Amino acid sequence: MARQKPHPATVFRNLFNGPGLIRGINIYDPITARLAQQCGFQVIALGGYQQGSALCVPEPTLTMTRKH
Known about the structure:
Elements: H1 8-17, E1 24-26, H2 30-38, E2 43-45, H3 48-54
Parallel strand pairs: 1-2
């Protein structure tokens, strides 16, 4: 019987609770995700600005309503 792959949240939790720093990088699209994986980064992040710039839309923070 094949061993089940652990849930991504479990993998991240184990990294977070482990010793040392977590090596991570922001990505923009599937190509940069694959490059980050091949370079050995342990985690990746896709932020709103990265996604917006990849889709050629205005910076997402400019469209948010600000309350002071």
